[in-house]
Amino acid sequence: MNTVRSDTESAKNSIRESQDEYELPGHVREASVHPTSPRLTPAPSPGSGIVPASEGNDPPQGPQHEAPQTPQYSVFSKRKKQGIVLAGSIGAVFSTMTAQTYLPALKVLADDFHVSVSKINLTVTTYLIFQGITPMFIGSFADRMGRRPAYIICFVVYIAANIGLAVSRNYASLLAIRCLQAAGISGTQSLCQAVVADIVTSAERGQYVGFVTLSAILGPSLGPIIGGALTDGLGWRSIFWFLTICAGVILILMALFFPETCRPIVGDGSIRPPKTNETLWQLIKDRQRSSSNNSQPPILPLTTPEGKVTKASFGIKHLFTSLTLLRSKELGLLLAYGGLIYSGINAISAALPSQFTEIYGFNSLEIGLMFLPMAAGSVVAVGVAGKAINWNYRRHAKNLGLTVDKSRQIDLTDFPIERARLEVAVPLLYVSAALVIAWGWALQSRTSVAVPCVLAFLMGVVYIGVLNVFNTLITDLYRKKAGAATAANWFIRCMLGAVMTAVIQPLILAVGSGWAYTIMGLAYVLFSPVLFLIMWKGMAWRKEEREKAESRTTAKNEERIIGKKEQKDNA
């Protein structure tokens, strides 16, 4: 009897998690409950995927006490997961690289179109605006219809825009198509992080999210080098033909092999997706199998250990999911502070060309090479910060007397996930503030170029470390709405980045590099108590939001029942 009561309570808890993280129809929510979905407490059941360290993994003896095992979170092997995330990250590089590849050609474009440099700079500003806005719609679309259709739409629009830019003949078309280019490719950042949420558990998410964060830095680092070399050698139009070819190759590979991972559609990956979400390789193999056996391919069941799969649907109300998430206290504060940190990277990147031209007399290619130290630091950070994030997660689990199973996702309701993540970010944050201040005074003092190179490398390490923590926590909090949550994240970052890009140069002219970057570093420190507030109140805020979601769901179900009863009575 106690066992039945325990399983019932566990099922109720799983319903709460499902309602809070992903809004599904009532009948689907009920069907998606698995009786062994783990509820994290200091003394969880043996089948929960996290067990007391002192008791080991052996369940209590006797058939009446045997608890079924929690299913694995994903059927993909470690190597396949790495390949999927790497492919998604390569696609995401285009979003940030495209913005920076264009910069070395600004003066040439102004001359060719017979307009001022300030007008050409407007195409950079509009790109940043659309880069922030569009992912909110793409992310919400991907959460409902799947990652593959969203990726393919993004790259098709992006390729068409690049071709249009390569053949554009006037400023008006350049400005308009540049907006279309940003709208097409900007969603790939949120899609990549959503893919991580689909196939990777919280226990190992730190390192995988690092690949996503790395793409946000590698793009701005490699873009100016590529753009400068192409502009000098082949002219500015070659930039867009280069992007067209590269994006075309990625699109073909994704269409052929990139699998659907969206959990509401394929569950843990074992469910056959709809035709619109299958890879071309799957369709080819099915046709070959059908021809050889003169029969249709076997139909897989529409359930997994997690429950039923939802039918993909998308409506107008889903377009604004990202905006509704911003009402969350925890997510709103986290995104605002993360946007402040990210805007610092934008400020350094935007001011670097003019500063290094004035101070060191660098040409466009040498300026592009100055982005490499930060890129190298970013690569180092992916491994180091990712391991630190996963280690701190395990440390908190151990402090609770728990052992982590990487292959099984747990209910984070009673787990201090905010502390487990942000404790890694806080020391890196203060180091980044010191490095930004040092960067400003090094440039103002006109030190040897070796000093900015070293500082840029270190900033790459700490900036990526901090942003990696933030991205991982966002995915933890909104695992089933990762696309929409990441899109909201990019919206805030791009808006603050656009503001910082616009004000950094006037600020440097007004107070000098030293004080300009000192103001930025002090802002990091001044607003850092926000992170401690999230660590302190985050769990309570999550429970409060879950209770509100339960109340809304109950009210909707009651209205639905009353409506059906009235229809039946009228009939």
From TrEMBL:
Keyword presence, Membrane: yes
- Region (Disordered) residue spans: 1-71, 547-571
State the source organism's domain of life.
Eukaryota
Protein's UniProt keywords contain Transferase? no
Q: Its membrane topology, per UniProt?
A: Multi-pass membrane protein
Return one GO MF term.
transmembrane transporter activity
Q: Where would you find this protein in the cell?
A: Membrane
Q: Which GO terms describe its cellular component?
A: plasma membrane
One of its Pfam families is MFS_1
Alphabetical UniProt keywords:
Membrane, Transmembrane, Transmembrane helix, Transport
**Where is this protein chiefly located?**
membrane
Q: Where is the composition biased (Basic and acidic residues)?
A: 1-32
Q: Where does the sequence pass through the membrane? A: 83-102, 122-142, 149-168, 239-258, 331-352, 367-389, 424-443, 449-470, 490-509, 515-536
Against InterPro entries, the record matches this protein to: MFS, MFS_dom, MFS_trans_sf
Domain called Major facilitator superfamily (MFS) profile: residue spans: 84-539
Gene3D superfamilies xrefs: MFS general substrate transporter like domains, Multidrug resistance protein D
**What is this protein identified as?**
Major facilitator superfamily (MFS) profile domain-containing protein
* Species for this entry: Ramalina farinacea
The organism that produces this protein has a lineage beginning with:
Eukaryota, Fungi, Dikarya, Ascomycota, Pezizomycotina
